[in-house]
Amino acid sequence: MANENLGTRKSTNRHILDWIEVTSRHCEPDKIFWCDGSEEEKRALTQEAVASGILIELNQQKLPGCYLHRSNPNDVARVEQCTYICTPSEDEAGPANNWKAPREMYAMLRPMTKGSMRGRTMYVVPYLMGPPGSPMTKVGIEVTDSIYVVLSMRVMARMGQVAYDELGNSDDFNRGLHCMLDVNPERRFIAHFPHENKIISVGSNYGGNVLLGKKCFALRIGSYLGKREGWLAEHMLILGVESPTGEKTFVSAAFPSACGKTNFAMMVPPPKFKDWKIWTIGDDIAWMKPGVDGRLYAINPEAGYFGVAPGTNAETNRNAMETISHDTIYTNVALTPDGDVWWEGKTETPPPELIDWRGNQWTPDSKEKAAHPNSRFCAPMTNNPSLAPEVNDPNGVPISAIIFGGRRSSTIPLVYSAFNWIHGVYVGATMSSETTAAASGAVGQVRRDPMAMLPFCGYNMGEYFKHWLNMRKNIKYPPRFFHVNWFRKNEQGEYLWPGFGENMRVLKWIIDRCNGRAHAHETPLGWVPGPEDFDLEGMENFSPEQFAETQQMNNEDWKREVLSTDELFMKLYSHLPKELIFQRELLVARL
Ligand code: OXD
Ligand code: MN
């Protein structure tokens, strides 16, 4: 290693020192490496990762600063079945979470983690979730034996000295322990202890399970802290729409994993909207809190994008392609002979030969996919050409609209607006989507995914809905709620709506509604635009009749839809707010 002082800049915070002392005595690493977030540290750790085969250096002419990581093929997605919320009572975790009492979970994990870092280095990774100096920002310390985690965490969060500076002598930080063990699915647990602001993750090295700032802290623990402290931790992107007159409107949007949050957050408007601009605040997580002016404000706690690679190309997401053209860690994508990366959907025709995500020779005749369907890029937000200037604003941005959406091939219209806050919470609570490769398990099945938080809510989902309803009292000027579905298909299985940049048209109607400029019709579902209220100008081969098809609402389909939401409501019944049951009744009556 270049500089022997690297890794020696200990924290001076007593609480951190004590915790690291106890943790290192338990895990017994050969060495403790204190990360400071410096460029020198990044260079040295990257070199070490390349030398040990954890990272493969890509073609530095084509992709400067980019590396490829291949995970263990048994470890490629989030594992909801191994994810636990450990609260004293099972009721507090609720029926949508796996639960174990903290004492039981510790009894199981202690022997697994005892001595687990023998012969290895323990990295201490201090990080901030949120911009420095923001009252919404929180500090985490992740202890890990994975150099891949260290290098990814410094992309995904503001990592290093900045976190120690923010924390000072306080004890208020998330304690996260990650031990890879032997990356064995039989010994894989992602355990959350919300009462102690603590996480223990073992047996995995996949991002969503081990970059502890992201899903574990910012969503599961965050949602619990938000309930206690009066804010919301949500699985939402945040973007700003700037109109030709310079008016900026910010919206947040919850879509389940791998439903296009990153594409939407970085959208390039179509030619007809050339004087409009989309600004990205975040692509996955929003922390939202009422501001002193009575509006709801949001920050993106993250500092990077851990996005799904397949399907990403210059057409679907030009800004992402630019973002991932340098200083990016790729995981489980395919490798070209000249050290470039490839995934399904990157180009129309695949290269004649590749090394696939498992490290095997691949040709277009191969039966398997070249890149894993959940292969990822991990890139700093500062690479993004559409990064909003407000991204580091400690106050966050004021939210005018909250958009819910899912991947549904039938029934759900392109866009509608809820009648009011309570109805909006009902619309979010009954959201659904077809499952994707982001989590292990079957793909393509419709499941209820309330507010896209089913895998991420750190406490009882019924109480979470109550918290959402209660938040209204502290917001004088509440955002409006909308629901969108880009994925509706016709009987031939073709998408009814072109999506991607054209989603700008939906967004325009949404912000025009928020700013009191757009017309709408009342329907049983909510307010919807008629073809005359919706800007279709400049869309080739897309008629007002086709638009009407995307918006079509069939009463019989919707009655079935309500019945299918009942299953979730029954499951959550003991804590379900009565307001949502009334909303169900009102919807049935309107139908
Ligand atoms: C993600 C996910 O990685 O939701 O963002 O799975
Ligand atoms: Mn996500």
Structural commentary:
- The protein is α/β, with parallel strands linked by helices.
- It folds into two domains: 3-53 and 82-230, Phosphoenolpyruvate Carboxykinase, domain 1 (3-Layer(aba) Sandwich); 234-303 and 387-575, Phosphoenolpyruvate Carboxykinase, domain 3 (Alpha-Beta Complex).
- The strands form seven sheets. Strands 1, 4, 5, 6, 7, 8, 9, 10 and 11 form a nine-stranded mixed beta sheet that branches.
- A hairpin with a 5-residue loop joins β16 and β17 (296-299).
- The radius of gyration is 23 Å and the shape is globular.
- The protein starts with 13 loop residues before the first helix and ends with a helix.
- Oxalic acid binds next to loops.
Write the layout of secondary structure elements.
Elements lengths: L13 H14 L3 E4 L4 H13 L4 E2 L9 E3 L13 E3 L4 H4 L4 E2 L2 H12 L7 E9 L8 E7 L2 H10 L1 E2 L1 H7 L5 E7 L9 E5 L4 E5 L4 H4 L2 H17 L2 E3 L1 E7 L5 E7 L6 H5 L11 E6 L3 E5 L5 E4 L4 E5 L9 H6 L5 E3 L2 E2 L5 E2 L11 E2 L5 E2 L13 E5 L16 E9 L9 E3 L3 H9 L2 E3 L11 E3 L12 H11 L8 E5 L18 H12 L6 E2 L4 E2 L15 H8 L3 H17 L6 H13 L1
Parallel strand pairs: 1-6, 3-19, 4-5, 4-10, 7-9, 9-11, 14-25, 25-29
Antiparallel strand pairs: 2-3, 6-7, 6-8, 10-11, 12-16, 13-14, 13-15, 16-17, 17-25, 18-24, 19-24, 20-21, 22-23, 26-29, 27-28, 30-31
Helix pairs in contact: 11-16
The structure holds oxalic acid and manganese (II) ion.
The site of oxalic acid (OXD) has 6 residues, from loops.
